[in-house]
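User: Reviewer 2 asked us to show a designed sequence for the structure in our supplementary figure. I'm pasting the structure tokens here. Could you produce the per-position amino acids so we can include them in the response letter?
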């Protein structure tokens, strides 16, 4: 069993910087190599900043690194499937940033490759590993609020107009739903499972991406989820999980929450706090490290079956809302 896990990162943007920062807070793990497709200088600067001994100016070159244990993919959405398949071909375990890929077809190819190459693969849905979310799951399992009947969740901020960058660029997989709507969508799957009914509507911007998408989900047990994401206004970015005898407030930003409050019947509200000094990516890193040390090919908390459900839900929402990516769909 290998104790020290040596990581590589493909892509050196902002999300990679946060990941590298949190990786430094994880015991028995280190950043070992980085690769940029734009320039060796960018890769070297990133490597120096985060103490990685190897840096490359192409993604293919990173596989020359000795003793590389895992790769985190931090590239734009449109490249996730391609980059993941490249890593799996070299039998290198992968943690791929969300969304896992652009659609179900791509995700299925990624999973098939992971199984053919007997190699670990996980979507980087960091929310699943945040202690506040785990506590919420525990409280529901303890029947503190009864059966979950309604979820309300939102995620919104004002995005600067930069059409060449990923967020507003359809050629890079931009748009509100895939970038931030994935969080309330995932929350609904986590607490209610897959819906039987889906309604969705989007507002589109001048670059063609969905600037705002709202969706309502219905379930066999008459539960509902009312969810929203927007790049045009700052919302509270919080979540409420309503049960038959109480509810849980996951405070903003709910996907990385540090505080939740339990409202159980007529009892006094109970607050739970989970302070940390990291961004919160360290928890998913620790999960992957543990899986690799135990020889597992996927995470029990974020299994590949959940990624299939999540991308299937996003595909259905896109279809209902008319969100199309030319050349992919």
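Assistant: Here is a per-position design you can include in the supplement:
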């Amino acid at each position: 069993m290998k104790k020290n896990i040596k990581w590589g990162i493909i892509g050196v943007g902002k999300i990679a910087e946060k990941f590298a920062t949190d990786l430094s807070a994880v015991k028995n793990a280190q950043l070992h190599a980085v690769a940029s497709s734009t320039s060796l200088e960018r890769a070297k600067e990133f490597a120096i900043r985060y103490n990685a001994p190897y840096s490359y100016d192409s993604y293919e070159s990173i596989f020359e690194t000795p003793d590389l244990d895992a790769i985190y993919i931090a590239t734009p959405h449109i490249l996730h499937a391609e980059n993941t398949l490249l890593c799996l071909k070299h039998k290198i375990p992968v943690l791929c940033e969300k969304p896992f890929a652009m659609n179900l077809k791509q995700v299925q190819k990624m999973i098939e490759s992971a199984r053919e190459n007997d190699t670990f693969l996980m979507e980087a849905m960091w929310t699943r590993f945040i202690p506040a979310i785990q506590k919420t799951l525990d409280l529901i399992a303890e029947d503190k609020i009864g059966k979950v009947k309604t979820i309300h969740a939102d995620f919104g901020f004002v995005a600067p107009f930069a059409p060449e960058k990923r967020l507003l660029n359809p050629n890079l997989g931009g748009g509100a739903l895939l970038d931030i709507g994935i969080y309330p969508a995932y929350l609904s799957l986590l607490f209610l499972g897959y819906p039987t009914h889906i309604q969705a509507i989007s507002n589109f911007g001048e670059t063609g991406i969905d600037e705002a998408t709202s969706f309502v989900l219905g379930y066999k047990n008459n539960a509902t989820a009312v969810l929203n994401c927007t790049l045009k206004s700052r919302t509270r970015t919080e979540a409420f999980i309503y049960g038959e005898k109480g509810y849980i407030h996951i405070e903003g930003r709910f996907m990385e929450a540090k505080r939740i409050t339990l409202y159980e019947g007529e009892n006094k509200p109970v607050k739970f706090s989970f302070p940390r000094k990291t961004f919160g990516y360290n928890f998913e890193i620790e999960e992957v490290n543990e899986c690799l040390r135990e020889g597992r090919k996927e995470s029990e908390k974020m299994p590949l079956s959940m990624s299939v459900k999540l991308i299937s839900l996003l595909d259905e929402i896109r279809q209902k809302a008319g969100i199309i990516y030319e050349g992919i769909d």
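For the response letter, you might also mention the following. The chain has a mean pLDDT of 96. The helical segments are 14-23, 40-49, 80-89, 104-116, 131-141, 176-192, 282-294, 304-321.
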